[in-house]
Structures are given as structure tokens and as C-alpha cells.
Amino acid sequence: MKTIRLTTAQAIVKYLTAQKVEIDGEIQQLFPGVFAIFGHGNVTCLGHALEEVKDVLPTWRGQNEQGMALAATAFAKASKRRQIMVATSSIGPGATNMVTAAGVAMANRLPLLLLAGDTFNSRIPDPVLQQVEHFGSPSTTVNDAFKPVTRYWDRITDPAQLVQSLPAAVNTMLDPGDCGPAFIGLPQDVQAEAYDFPVRFFDERVHAVRRPRPDRDEIARAAEILSGAGKPIVISGGGVHWSEAEATLRDFVETHHIPVVETVAGRTSLPSSHPLNAGTVGVTGCTSANTLAREADVVLAVGTRLQDFATGSWTLFENEDVQFIGLNTARFDATKHMAHAVVADAREGLAELTSMLGDYRVGDDWVDTCAAETAQYHAYIDKISAPNTPNNSGQSAAPTDLGFPSYAQVVGVVDRADDGSIYALTAAGGFPGELVNGWRSDTVHSFDAEYGYSCMGYEIAGGWGAKMARPDDEVVVFVGDGSYMMMNSDLYSSVLSGHKLIVIVCDNGGFAVINRLQVGQGGVPFNNLIADAKIVDEVRVDFAAHAAAMGAISETVTSISELEEAFTRARAADRTYVIALQTDAYTWTEGGSFWEVGVPEVSNRAEVLGARSEMDEGKAGQRIGW
Fold it and tell me: Is 216-375 a domain of CATH 3.40.50.1220?
């Protein structure tokens, strides 16, 4: 057997560079880059190995370990899970900074490879710099914290283990039903250790996306259920994107005349203007999609994990005879809530299902209902997003400040300016609810709202990663002041690396959407808006000046007309452009459905007791296992 002597670190890098993937007929690197912040736990070995291959596997310097791992996660989403970025850190706080990003990738079923330094396998130097000691468990390190938020976890204690561990990690990340982040811990002495690796271990391998076909009995039963439906809907989830099934979905619903409602992750799986697209379903959804969901007698859930925001905490489907069909590569998701499971790739499953349905076609009455409800939804969005609409047209948690634009108006500026080249991105806070309704793009896969883990701070870092994956698109990041303050340093990353973003920062004075929830459930405004927090003085951040200090072009605007003009300038700019404006903290897009949160059973506030009564009433309609 031919061997080559390499350190553990060199072997990892050599293996990663040998992994390829075919995308649109072109062979590309499966791992196109590494995000890295070096420290004593990874700089001398892994850092050295990466420097040796920097022309093949470029290393991008991050500003914060969480940010760079979030950028890697957004890259995977923007590339439809076809390519995987690596994030590496030193030991201790550098490693644990990435735990949150691992949670984002885990919740959203996205591939991410994390390589973190670790303490010494020999334990001779213990305790080492940044080591957290566990008195009764000496082999435990902070890297064990990744176990709940990764799909694959390993610690390399001998170089020979790489021959099994690296392929297992790659295969996990590429598995359509088990996809998620992989973590490999690298003790500092093991990184430096040399071993005679088999040469064939580093042979080039071109990976292909596995497309499991449905079981014949499962698909036949699904066709039988669906063919008896008078009011069916398709719930389109993120799996439609990962399977590249958008065109197949469109053919399927057009052939059988079935309305589509989208989850947050599934948004823009069908052109927004398509007559069978009823909009986003659930808590942040629109009235048209939710109306159809309430009446549906068969629900075909494609590529969705059916999060509570899509199901209204399982109160949305009011037809007592409704039947669910779960089409998903993951058995865990396909079988939820006693659904008839079809464990298969979305594209292949839809193709076989339409073949078995033959000439089945939904009656015109149901499609007419979809058209009428959706027309009202679009008319409503047109109204509230118009430049001169008074800001009291939505739900409020307090008297509306009529002097500031609403989120809906801000989204409307970009929505009207879209020419098919914009990739809109946001996360957490109030923007996901506004964008899933107001971002009405006809370009499929033009939207990323990180709402699986709802991670504040994802926006700017995610925009950086998305731009790497989609260099020809205009990546527009929508971020509130709260998320901006949590993590903004990758504005600097985007400037340094030349990955231009357009970032719209909306300052509504704090965590306004949580203030809305707090007050809406009977509480008093407390510790969410800056004005309601324990402060000496209410100081507003000059976001434009802050962005300019990191090298971005920036400006502050005060109206929607000024925002429109600034957005035009931003599109013409040659580097990251930040537009800041104050927005209304109380106006929100109407719609949505019931959402279960914890409301006290006992309180000295009548408003809280009233909210608890409404919560109990809503819970009475929850679907429990039927």
C-alpha cells in the first residue's frame, strides 16, 4: 500500500481539497473555502496546512467566530446545500463562539464543517490556556458543547482516525435526510503528529446529490389520498429548494390545479405572482394562505419540518377530516403528526406522484377561492407598503408614531425595485414577518430568512456568506437596530474581502417585536425598547457613522422617498453600502394565526389574565396526534 507521511492537520486539508461536486455540469470544489480566526489551538498546525493550499482552498479571515460560522451557514443555504464552507477556531472561547452558529445549521438542516482546536491528548501540559477543567471527567472539554447542535461529532485522538472520521462527516453533511453540521475536535498535539496515510485516501472524489425515490406502496397510498381531495393544498418547505424541485413543484401544481402555501424556509419556491401561490402560511403568514389551510381536506407537506410558525402551533388546520401527507427525505419529518409518510427526494417524489395521479385535477371552486383570497392579500400589501401610507394600518402595541416609516414600507422599496437579481436576507426580530409577506419576488430561491433558529446577528454575517455563494446577485440585508448591535463586524469583513452588500438598518428603538409580544400578552413595556430599559439617557446610535468607520459607504435617510433614492445609489456602488433610517416601533403587517407562548396562570394584572384566557381558548383548537 502506497502511503504519504503527513501531519493530522495536513491530512485534513489535503482530504478536503480532494472532494469535488458536480454543479450544473461543472466540477467544483465541495469545500470552496475556509473561514478562520487563528489562535494557539489551530494556528501552528492547521493554519500552516491551510497556508500551503491557499490558492486551492482560500482562507477568509473572520472578525468573530460566530459570525464566520453563520456566514458559512448562509453560504450553504444560498448554494442549495451543494457546497460546504469550513469554519475553524482555536480552543476555548473561540470554539464556543461557534456553538450558536452550529445550532442555526442544525435547526435549518444545513451542512457546515467546524474544526476547533482542543486541549492536549496527552494531558501532560494541563491545564492549558483557555482550558475549562472538569474534575470528574478529564476527557471533557468545552468542545463537548457541540454535541447537541451537530449531526456528526468526533474528537481525533489518533491521526489514523481521520480515514474513517472525515468520510463519515462528509457523508453526513451530504445526506439529504440527515444533513446538518459536522464537528471535529483537534487536540493540539494530535494536529502536529505525523502518520503514514494511504495515498488513495486523497484520491479526487466527485460527489453527487443522492435522490432517494419513494417506496412504491407509500407513493401509491399518497396518490390515493390526494385523488380523493376536494380542497388540497401543498405546503412548500425549504426542502423544495435543497432538492432543486422548484420547476417540478410548479409543473405538479399546474397539472393538478393545487394551491401552494409556503413556509418561511420555502418562500420563493414558486413565483409570487403565480395564480396558485397563496403566500406564506402560519404565524407570520398572510390571510390567504391561512384561510386555505383552515379549509384544506388534504395537506401535502413537501420538504418541511412543520415548525410551529407554519402550523400556528398546530391550530391552523381546522378541518377535522384533514389528512396529511409528508413528502420528505427525512423519515423524522415525513412522519410527523400521523402523516402518511413518503420518504423521498422532493423532486423525484413529486414527479412520481403526478404520474400516479394521472388526470386528477382540483375543481375550479377551490382554485377560485385561492385567487380571490390571494388578490385581497396582494391588495393589502400594496396598500401598506405604499410610500405615503399612514403608519396606523397594521397591528400596534402602543400608539403609532406617524412620523416614521413602517417596516412594510421599507420592504416595499426593495420589492418594487427588484429586477430579478436581488437576494433578500434577514433573520429574527420583526423583519421575517414583514418580508415573508412583502417580498413578492418572481425569482425562485431569492430569499433567506433565518427563522429555523431565529438567530439575531445572522443578518450581516449571513449576507457576507450569501454573497460569496451568489456573487452575481445583489444581496440586500434587512436588519433591525437590535440585531445590528449584536453582530455587525462582518460589515468590515465584506469590505476587506470585496463582497459587496446592501444593508438596510432600521432603527426602531430596541427589540420592538418582542415589546409587541410582551404587551400583546398583557404585560407592560419593560426592558425591550431602549426607552423602557434601565438607562440614564436614551442615546441613538449613528449607524451610518459606525458603518463608515468600518469602510462601508453609508448614509442616513429620513423618509421612504429618500430611501428609494439611496437604494439606487447603493446598487451603483462598488462596495458595501449601508442605509440607516428610523422606523416605527409599533406598526406591523396584519395576518398570522394563533401562536402558543407561555402566559402566566396567576397575575396581578387583569390584562395578563385576559391574555391567558385567550391562550387557553386558542389551545383548545390544537391538533394533537390526529
Answer: yes
Q: In what order do the strands lie in the sheet with 474-480?
A: 447-450, 422-427, 474-480, 502-507, 577-582, 553-556
Q: How far apart are CA 142 and CA 261, in angstroms?
A: 42
CB atoms closer than 10 angstroms to residue 156: 23
Report the C-alpha dihedral over residues 607, 608, 611, 615, rounded to 10 degrees.
-170
Environment class of 534 (CB within 10 Å of its CB; exposed 0-12, middle 13-18, buried 19+): exposed
pLDDT in tens, 237-272: 999 999 999 999 999 999 999 999 999 999 999 999
pTM exceeds cut of 0.85? yes
The residue ranges of every structural domain in the chain are 3-207, 216-375, 386-582
* Fold matches, 3-207 and 386-582: yes
**The domain made up of 386-582 is a member of CATH 3.40.50.970:** yes
Domain 3-207: CATH superfamily is Thiamin diphosphate (ThDP)-binding fold, Pyr/PP domains (3.40.50.970)
Residue 251, Cβ density class (10 Å: 0-12 exposed, 13-18 middle, ≥19 buried): middle
Quick check: 626 pLDDT over 90? Answer: no
- Write the DSSP assignment of 374-396 as a string of letters: HHHHHHHHHHHHSTT--TTSSB-
pLDDT per residue as tens digits for the range 571-594: 999 999 999 999 999 999 998 999
Residue in 201, 293, 205, 313 with CA at minimum distance from that of residue 594: 313
CB 176 within 8 A of CB 130: no
Whether the CB-CB separation of 551 and 492 falls below 8 Å is answered with yes
Contact 263/280 with Cβ under 8 angstroms? yes
